[in-house]
Specification:
seven-stranded parallel β-sheet, six-stranded parallel β-sheet, 21 strands, globular
């Protein structure tokens, strides 16, 4: 799925230990809107996924409605003072974490700016908050961008529904990347159950019964302009001309905000339009707010679901989520969420058809085409059923609980003091720490139009060493991270394309263009997949995707764990779930690997090279596939490995496994030189662990491990040369290897990009700015400690 990270199907067990009090700020029934229904379902599902939690609601109200439990606090949408008062009431109730469901239209003030008063007051009261973004615009107004940027800057976590939304935020620089997590939109389990007709209102039951012998198109949801229903009606004459047995059901009450402004004028215009087009007999309006049971019955009776929305920017659709969760084939206009959810599977089959927004002819062609092809319709229904199984609330809520739990406040004074200081420093220094300008002189000396020279004598490139796929793939990964060297990406893709053969890939190439080896399978193939996946996830993916289609089938035949792990890292980076079957198969091979030796909690009987890539790959695959067991195994093996490389004690210092490798009982001081690629692997694995768990220890250790390159190592000498941007090839007991080849220099830059992208490098600030930050932090510590610094 393009950018939609699903979670495992089926009912999830409780996975979040400990007590926690959560307040969800949102619209809430009896207020009628999609967000209110979402929040009601979310709270119910969280209570199952995390039964030791207390989950309350803070209702955003505009109509003077009456609320009962679990609503504890009510905010009047348009009263600015209500937002700070609500924060005070939430904090007084002992809340550990607040989850703000953000949609511009539900908060008062220009562009919903009143919500910032709530967020700022929570920070003042030392109550952390998380945000779920229901709208992410590609081209927001200045006011919308300001509100979103400020809201996300103070959030402990930001969740979005798709990888596309996450990418939009990252491109806009809104929020720190380590705090933005994809958690899919959930759907109630009843959508996949048979509903007793007694659970339906008489009007709904009668309308559905009337459709016997007809093929049903359906759209549901609160009705209002922007939903594109007039476009669907304009497409209907053509559809009915080809398929006269079609009946189009438009289900849902008019949106309360539309009623408040214009009454039922929009609905009446749709009825009149159907009359003018001569299709009134083929359209039925179900003018009511449907229950989940009624939605289940409607979707069970639906042959083809239609979402004709007019805006291509729409980043979420609860109705489309419900339709796919119920296993309905879909014809939809091309908006962002539909592109994600309806993207083709590995075999090219998709749960529906996408057509341009606002084009009745294209919509009619899409509907008629599926109705005329029973095999295609059945295939779309099968894929929708498979994909919908990943969207059930129990599994989605369990995923969300694991994301929220680390963000919650620990009640001990020491933890609260640290949190206050951290928030103050965050306010003083900004939401993220950008990477310092990378010094690329040495990489440019090593790189030419063909590739990157493997070795160097000192800092002089050694052309006799030629090129290899391993290093060119690393160059592509670094170039994708830098975003400033498009020529390097083009060089990488050209080199990899030339290396691909039906049975494998060449690896070694001389400067005269001749390959030095036969095509084969090995680490270089895994690294090629890794690079292609990273590049394919970027702004210019087409060429990388074409090459990946040629190389991905080789992954099933990779015999070595590291080769497999490299490939997993590339496939897991794809935003649309492309080659999902290959990814799962490769990750399951890593899961099955176990040395099975007492006290040796590792995949193999030896620690060799690039070791941390194995747990890193499981973390990446677990996130992409929604597989909690993979994440747990990745974390447990990473934690064990940290103890092997000096990062588990009170004074951590990275000491990589040497190039003589390590087995149970072997002497650490006999292992040989430490390699930069091992240090980079540790750094990237730690950064990913921090992104997924939010545990501060992983962030601290990632920074500490990166410092290995700068002299925080057993020899006390730096490997990185700031004058050239090169990195020495190895660390000896008291010195470094004087050579600076491609592998080592690229390893340093991979490590740098990882810690910088996560905001774990210190800013280069002026002395005045540093003094201000320290003073602000001390003040916060003193306040949180009752006046004792």
């Amino acid at each position: 799925m393009a950018g939609l990270r699903g979670v495992a199907a089926g009912r999830s067990r409780r996975i979040v230990p400990g007590r926690l009090r959560l307040a969800v700020v949102s619209t809430v029934p009896p207020r009628r809107c999609g967000l209110a229904s979402y929040s009601q379902d979310l709270v119910a599902a969280l209570r199952v996924a995390a039964p030791s939690w207390r989950v309350d609601l803070c209702a955003v109200d505009r109509e003077g409605l009456r609320y009962g439990p679990p609503v504890r606090v009510v905010i009047h949408q348009d009263r600015a003072a209500d937002y700070r008062r609500a924060a005070d009431e939430i904090a007084a109730g002992g809340c550990d974490l607040v989850l703000i469901e953000h949609e511009y239209g539900i908060f008062g003030g220009p562009d919903g700016a009143h919500v910032l008063a709530l967020a700022d007051r929570l920070v003042e009261l030392n109550v952390p908050y998380a945000v779920t973004l229901h709208t992410v615009l590609g081209d927001p107004s200045p006011g919308q961008e300001m509100v979103l940027r400020r809201l996300c800057a103070g959030a402990a976590r930001v969740t979005v529904f798709t990888e596309t939304a996450r990418r939009l935020l990252a491109q806009a620089g809104i929020g720190t990347p380590d705090r933005i997590v994809v958690v899919p939109h959930g759907a109630p389990e009843i959508l996949r159950s048979t509903v007793d007709s007694a659970a339906l209102s008489p009007a709904v039951a009668a309308t559905l019964a009337e459709q016997a012998g007809r093929r049903v198109l359906a759209t549901f949801g609160l009705i209002g302009p922007g939903k594109g229903l007039e476009v669907a009606l304009a497409a209907l004459p053509d559809v009915v001309g080809r398929h006269p047995d079609v009946r189009y059901l438009i289900a849902g009450a008019t949106h309360p905000e539309e009623v408040r402004r214009n009454g039922e004028r929009y609905r009446q215009s749709l009825v009149a339009l159907a009359e003018r087009l001569g299709v009134a007999d083929h359209v039925r309006f179900i003018d009511t707010f449907l229950t989940d049971a009624e939605l289940s019955a409607l979707l069970a009776r639906t042959d083809l679901y239609v979402t004709p929305y007019l805006s291509s920017e729409q980043i979420c659709s609860g109705t489309l989520t419900f339709a796919v969760a119920a296993g309905c084939p879909v014809v939809s206009t091309t908006y962002r969420y539909a592109e994600d959810l309806l993207a083709p599977a590995d075999d090219g089959s998709a749960p529906g058809v996408l057509v341009p927004c606002g084009d009745p002819e294209a919509l009619a062609a899409g509907i008629s085409g599926l109705l005329a092809d029973p095999e295609a319709l059945a295939r779309a229904r099968r894929v929708a059923g498979e994909r919908g199984g990943t969207l059930m609330w129990p599994a989605v809520a369990a995923r969300l609980a694991t994301v929220l739990a680390p963000a919650a406040r620990v009640r001990q004074r020491g933890a609260a003091t640290t949190r206050a200081a951290s928030l103050a420093a965050h306010r003083a220094t900004g939401p993220s720490a950008p990477a310092p300008a990378a010094r690329l002189d040495h990489l440019r000396r090593l790189t030419d139009a063909t590739g990157i020279i493997q070795f160097a004598r000192g800092d002089e490139p050694d052309p006799a060493s030629g090129y290899c796929v391993d290093d060119v793939a690393r160059l592509g990964i670094v170039a994708a991270g830098l975003r400033t060297e498009p020529d390097w990406i083009a060089t990488c893709l050209t080199f990899l394309a030339a290396a691909i053969r039906p049975g494998g890939m060449h690896n070694l190439r001389s400067v005269d263009g001749h390959w030095r080896d036969r095509p084969h399978l090995g680490d270089h193939v895994g690294r090629a997949v890794w690079a292609l996946g990273i590049i394919a996830a970027g702004p210019s993916p087409h060429r990388a995707r074409v090459l990946l289609d040629r190389v991905a089938p080789m992954v099933d035949r990779l015999a070595f764990l590291r080769s497999t792990a490299y490939a997993v890292l590339g496939l897991a980076a794809l935003p649309d779930g492309q080659h999902r079957r290959v990814l799962r198969s490769a990750a399951e091979r890593l899961m099955a690997a176990d040395a099975a030796a007492p006290g040796w909690c590792w995949f193999e009987p030896q620690l060799t090279y690039d070791n941390a890539r194995l747990p890193q790959a499981l973390l990446a695959a677990g996130a992409a596939l929604g597989d909690a067991a993979m994440v747990r195994r990745g974390l447990s093996t990473l934690d064990w490995y940290l103890g092997q490389v000096g990062l588990a004690g009170p004074e951590p210092m990275l000491r990589c496994v040497g190039n003589a490798w390590r087995a149970p009982g072997s002497r650490v001081d006999d292992e040989g030189d430490e390699q930069p690629l091992d240090a980079a692997a540790v750094v990237e694995a730690l950064v990913l662990a921090w992104r997924q768990t939010g545990e501060d220890r992983y962030a601290r250790l990632a920074s500490r491990a990166h410092a290995w390159f700068h002299g925080a190592n057993r020899a006390g000498v730096p490997l990185y040369d700031p004058a050239s941007g090169g990195c020495h090839d190895g660390l000896k007991e008291r010195s470094v290897n004087v050579n600076m080849g491609a592998e080592s220099t690229l390893a340093y830059h991979q490590s740098l990009l990882a810690v910088a992208g996560a905001g774990l490098l210190p800013r280069h600030r002026t002395a005045a700015a540093r003094t201000t930050a320290r003073t602000t932090a001390r003040t916060a510590v003193r306040a949180a400690s009752g006046g004792v610094a």
